[in-house]
Each structure stands twice: as structure tokens, then as C-alpha cells.
Amino acid sequence: MYRFHRHTVKPVPQTHKEGNALACTAEGCSFVSVHISTLCNHLQLHIKDGKKVSCPYDNCTKYFRVCSSFSSHVSRKHKIRAPCTAAAVSVSTASSVNSEMTQTFQTGLDGVSGDVSDELGIEMDDENNNASNEVDENDFINSLALFYLQMQAKIAIQAALPQLDREKLETVVGELVSKLGVEGPDDLQFIKEEDVRHLLTPIQCRKLLHTFKRDSRIGSVTSSPEEETVASSSTVSYPSQRIISCENSDWLSGFQVPWEEMRPTLRRAIDAGKRPEAEDRRHMVKVTVDSMREHCLNPTRKDCTAVAKAIIQKYPGSFLDKTEEGETIGCGYFSLLNQLKTRIEYITRGNTLSRLRKPRCSQASNDDQTSAPKCARIDSYGCIRWQPQEYPEGETLTSLEEKRKEMVDIFSQEGLRAAERGRVKELMTITYIKQREDINADPPSSILDITKQWPFLQSWKFLLYHFTTLTGVELQSRLNEDLDKKGKRLLEFFRCQLMKWSKEVKAVLQEALNTDREGTDGLAAMLVMMAHFKVAEDALFLLADVSMLSLFVIICTV
């Protein structure tokens, strides 16, 4: 409606007494205009006097007392119909009308139309009375496409300078579009520093230009010849996948955590080797991530790992993951690494241009070996050999597969008894990398399939061996050590609260404390807790006669 009828009225053979003009027929009013917007402004004067107006279009007898209703009617009923003629605008007296509607009318008909036309870049000349109201469809599509390209350019600028306030961002975008003629994100690579020097600080200018040039290089590398041919043959081209990430991690070599920007309470805590408060630690993560994003908009997990390691090495007493006994948990920096990466994902969640996207490229290989299956990243926390990358010396994927089949044949003939053979132990050690590939395969295999491919993993011996190789932890000895540690604490707790327990608990506890329990604290603590919770011994333990067990051992030895 606002593009068709805002400014001019197309004349038709049936005209009013003033020729091609719209005339107000109110008594004593001789106002004439060829612009519907001018006529509507004039009608506001009559609305203030409590009068109602009729629609100026042919064959329309609607009357209105409210300006917003009249504006809505014109935009809906006469949007793509024959242009209105110079029909008389009859004005009659009404009982009353709210004078505040006049402002709504002016805003709805003039202000909104102006905003829409300005936003889409369509220039409409109020003085061109003889111009046709027919809007060329191709011009409209091109203008709409230009509008979306300019919006993408605005998003690209915001991604390069996320700290830029909205008012400054609008100023920069307006300057680039109006004065430099930027029509889309692809034009941003041609901007020079002197073009935006008066709008931004020197550092902001350099960051902006660096991001634009880097994106253009990445886009030229990732775009295929077919995509370039299609883009060159089309009238309006849209950028394909935008990649805004770090080309490399060279910035990590010179990166320094801005400790001077941290809170004084955190600095005092780390200087004293104490654990900082949770709020101070979150603030440290926020400041560190902001500093990292000055070099890379979306640091990878590998980058976060390097930063977390550096922080742990400098202040292990304040940030190292450890238990109350001082034992390091996992790698020691897992919680800090997760905080850094979570903060980065939170900042970039609404900015698609800052997200890291890596194209999947298949590299041709001249090697006749079968490519190894892809491994699914699931959870490698606490592992030291989650997925080895290099085969054992002198081994290939084919040779490892042959060794796996050999073990399947041995198992089919001898069963789990063959687990004691030295040859099986040797084969299981060499084929560890193949075992991890099959376990980590994407899509993952079921446990039944794994046991069919690697039958000796069903044995307790090789299952523990696989776990030890994977984590570097001797499970059986570590379990006994941890049971003893926890057992000592539990026994000490029961001893300090001795008067609170029942007779049964006191009896078991007294016997445990009086007995030489070297290496058996865990077992003693379990017996005390079973007495406290009234759990029968045979519910957790298999009871056996000690003399019969000794006889069984002697027989087996013989």
C-alpha cells in the first residue's frame, strides 16, 4: 500500500470536479491535492473537529472515525487494486472521536511507510507526480536481495568486533553502505584502514581488516570451481558457508593470561597458594576467554587445553584438580578446561559466523592399505592411550587383522583356557591399537560384536590388562589402595562416635581396631558398615571354610 498509494494518484477517465486531484468536499473546504498522504494529513484537521471521512477510492463507500482504521483499510483493501480516482471525499459530522488518533494516523501512514521504504533502499520521489505507481518486480527483488546482503555485512562486522556497541555499529554500517557502496560481506575485503579510521580506534580498525582479509582467504580456499561458476552466472549471489576461525594457533606461543585484570581477592589467593572463591574463579575464566578471543573468535578445545595447562603449571595449588588427600584427579586441568570451553560456547552460541566449521575433505592416498575406520569422540577423560595413532613397528592394518583372526581361531579351539598362553598375551599386546579402533568405531559396535571380534577381552586377565594400558592404572592394586584409604577414614569416624553405636557395631568395631589390619582397613570398614546397616555377611561375601580353602590350594598346587 505504501509503495503504491503513498505519494501519487494515477489519473483515470472518470475524474472529480478538480480533474486528476483528490478534493475534500467538506462544507466550506476547498482543499485539493494529488497526493494521498497530503490529503490524509488534511483529514486529520476534520477528525479533530469530530467528523468522519470516507474512503477516496472508487466503488468504496466505507466511512471511518478512527485514523488507524482508515490506514489499515487502505493498506489491505487497496494494496494491489486499480488506483484510486479523484472521487470526492465526503466528510460528515460524527458525535465524538478521540483526538489522540490523529497522531496514530500520521505515524501509521507516513512514518511506517517511510521506514519500510528507507530500510529496503527504495527511493520514492514525492515531487514526481507523473510517475507510474507500478513497482517493477525485478527492481523489488534486487532491492530485497541487496537488503539481505547488507544485513550479512552487518553481522560480519559484529562478529569481528563483538564488543562494539549498537549505536557505533549502526554508524559504521551506514558509513560503509552509503559512502563506500558496500553491498554484501564479500565487499568487506576491499575496505582500507583510512575508510573507517574516523569511526573506530586503531586497534579496532586493524582487527576488522584482519578478519575481513582472513575470511576472504578462507572463502577462496574452501569454494570449489563449480560454486564459483554458479555464483558468476547469477545476478545476485549469496555467500556459501562462512568460516570464521583461527587459521592456526600461533597466537598461543605469545599469549599471556591478563592476571592484572583479575580481582584482588583472586590474586591474593593464588599468591598464597590457596583455592580461590567460585565467583572469583568464574570471573577469571571470563577475563581469560575475552583475552583469548582478541586473537581468535572461537578458540578450539586444543587451544583451551594449552591455556589451562599454562594456568595449572603456574598456580597448581590454586587450580589443580585434586582430592582432599592431595591426589591429582585425571590430568589435573579438566575442570578448568571445561570452564574455558563452556564460556566460549556461551559467547558464540548466537553468532553463527564465529562458530568453527571445518570442511570434511577426503585426501587421496596412494597406499594400497585399507583406511582405518573413523573413531567417534565419546569420553577420553582419564585415559592416556585413548586412541593410539601409530601402529607398532613393522605392523600394518592388514597384519593386525590377521593376528586378530589368529586369536579368534585359538579361542574357538581352546576357549578362555588359552588366555594363559604366551602367544595370546603377545598378540593382545600388539593388537591394542586395533582393539581401540574397533571399540571407538563410528557408529559404535555392540558389546556382543566386540566380544566376537576380540574374544579374549572376556577374560579377567586381559580385561584388566586393556584397562591398565588405556588409563595407566593398575586397577586391582589401585582398588585395594583406595579401599584402605577410605577404610581408615570410616573407621576413624566410627571410633570418634563410639558411644552412639549399638552393641553389634561396637563389637565389630572393637575387634577391627584391636586386630592388626595392615592392608585390610577397607575390609574392616565394610564389616563395620554392614553391622551398622544390619546387612547380613553372606549378602556381600561368599563364606568359606578356611581349612577347606587351604586344602583346595594344596591340591591345586600339586
TrEMBL record:
Signal peptide range in chain numbering: none
UniProt cross-references to InterPro entries, sorted A to Z: Znf_C2H2_type
Annotated SMART domains: ZnF_C2H2
Matches recorded under PROSITE patterns: ZINC_FINGER_C2H2_1
Residue ranges annotated for the C2H2-type domain, each copy included: 55-78
PANTHER family according to UniProt: SI:CH211-196P9.1-RELATED (PTHR31025), SI:DKEY-15H8.17 (PTHR31025:SF30)
Protein known as: C2H2-type domain-containing protein
The organism's taxonomic lineage, starting at the top: Eukaryota, Metazoa, Chordata, Craniata, Vertebrata
